[in-house]
Write a structure and sequence with these properties.
By secondary structure, this protein is of the alpha/beta class. The chain has 2 domains: 32-59 and 294-389, Aspartate Aminotransferase, domain 1; 64-291, Type I PLP-dependent aspartate aminotransferase-like (Major domain) (Aspartate Aminotransferase, domain 2), CATH 3.40.640. Helix content is 36%, strand content 12%. It contains 13 helices and 13 strands. The strands form 3 sheets. The protein has a 7-stranded mixed beta sheet, sandwiched between helices. It has a 4-stranded antiparallel beta sheet with strand order 9-10-13-12. Helix 6 links the parallel strand 3 (126-129) and strand 4 (147-150). The longest helix has 24 residues, at 293-316. The protein starts with 22 loop residues before the first helix and ends in an 11-residue tail after the last helix. The relative contact order is 0.15. Bound molecules: pyridoxal-5'-phosphate. Residues 55, 107-109, 133, 183, 187, 214, 216, 244, 246, 252, 257 line the site of pyridoxal-5'-phosphate.
């Protein structure tokens, strides 16, 4: 009944409004953000909460970005620039593209939903890989589009365990597909594709199939044969690349993402963009962040070094660590009970990592790479949890 508080204090729903929603939304479960970080922060002890669940930057934002943000605080009564002129200028210069090829978003999450809203639908299904970023299935379903999921490479694959199987994706492509959505490197596996593999996918996709390449972690990708895909945009008008300021640039709170594509794609998507979707502090900070080469270099260097050091430590404890070209590691603990016990034990020690049940990987946890001292705290806590629960890695003894 309307107006009657539930146990949590909210009124009970008056009726089932989902019946009134469009077909795709009816069966849609909203994005699962993982643990309630704010509640955990509030109850954390004297050392504070160690947040290694969201793939945020342990190195924070650039000082130049923070100064640019502060300069916007005197004019909060004004709407932001609906054209995002200053940021687009900086992005066009940094990416070597025209401003007409850029669409700004309130984070790339918004852009990914919009792409599906515009270019997918009942007659235009979406193709993804197993273990793709969780937003792609949501975006497809919200757009009433069928989702075709291609099996990933096996865990036993020598270089890209659980990575995208590009040959299988090419084989599954049909001219009817409205979109292919994939991340390079991928979240949550950390695996990656070479430029040649991406180009093969682009060659296989028909002219009416748009390929969305989500490069949220693209700046961390540093492998031979992995060049910038931005250079492919002129050759393949059906390529859409997204980048974010939430990861490398440490501006997740400001919600700034960008889509780079053919001007025709951008023009159509502009039709559904909310006019002031990126706020002024975000526009200013992102433009400044792009120019802070010293900060960028530090974050890249530290992340890579700490990631490899952390991977060595985790492997030494007997766990399977997926190779990663991102700012996180996907760790397979062998059994879902072990992963759940570790997640609980870490939480009890005020450390948050990301459970992977929602990705169909309940035996895994995803761990963001932190600073040296943060990773040391994590490892110490992991050892304590293992000892306390008498857990052991697969092959090292019996697991709980
Ligand atoms: C692969 C991938 N794409 C997109 C996003 C969303 O980023 P944003 O903060 O720009 O919405 C994330 C965030 O974790 C991600 O992992």
């Amino acid at each position: 009944m309307a107006g009657v508080p539930t146990d949590a204090g909210a009124p009970a729903p008056a009726r089932d409004f989902s019946a009134l929603a469009s077909p795709g939304i009816r069966g849609l479960a909203s994005y699962d953000p993982g643990h309630d970080i704010v509640a955990l922060r509030n109850k954390a002890g004297e050392h504070g909460l160690l947040e290694l669940g969201g793939n945020e930057s342990a190195w924070g934002a650039s000082l130049l970005a923070m100064a640019a943000l502060r300069s916007e605080l005197d004019t909060l009564e004004l709407y932001p620039d609906p054209r995002g002129g200053v940021l687009k200028h900086a992005l066009a210069e940094a990416f070597g593209v025209a401003r007409e090829q850029l669409l700004l978003g309130n984070g790339t999450h918004e852009l990914l939903m919009q792409v599906a809203q515009v270019f997918a639908g009942p007659e235009r299904p979406v193709l993804v890989s197993r273990y793709c970023f969780a937003v792609y299935p949501l975006a497809a379903q919200a757009a009433n589009a069928r989702l075709d999921v291609v099996e990933a490479l096996p865990k036993e694959h020598a270089s890209q365990p659980r990575g995208h199987d590009i040959d299988a994706m090419i084989a599954a492509l049909t001219p009817a597909h409205g979109l292919v959505m994939l991340a390079n490197p991928n979240n949550p596996t950390g695996t990656w594709l070479t430029s040649a593999q991406i180009e093969r996918l682009l060659q296989a996709a028909g002219p009416d199939t748009l390929v969305v390449l989500d490069e949220a972690y693209g700046e961390f990708l540093d492998q031979p044969g992995c060049e910038s895909t931005l250079s492919l945009l002129l050759k393949y008008p059906n390529l859409l690349v997204t980048r974010t300021f939430s990861k490398l640039h440490g501006l997740a709170a400001l919600r700034v993402g960008v889509l780079v594509a053919d001007p025709g794609v951008v023009a159509v998507m502009e039709r559904v963009r909310e006019s002031f979707n990126v706020n002024s502090p975000g526009l200013a900070a992102a433009a400044a962040a792009l120019k802070d080469e010293a900060h960028i270099a530090t974050v890249l260097h530290e992340t890579t070094g700490n990631r490899e050091a952390l991977a060595i430590e985790l492997k030494a404890r007997g766990w399977f660590v997926h190779p990663s070209q991102t700012n996180f590691l996907l760790v397979d603990f062998g059994k879902s009970e072990t992963a759940a016990a570790i997640d609980r034990g870490l939480l009890a020690r005020d450390i948050v990592v990301r459970p992977m049940r929602g990705y169909g990987l309940p035996q895994c946890l995803r761990i963001t790479v932190g600073k040296v001292e943060q990773n040391a705290r994590l490892l110490k806590a992991l050892d304590a949890v293992m000892a306390e629960a008498a857990l052991s890695a697969p092959g090292v003894g019996a697991s709980a």
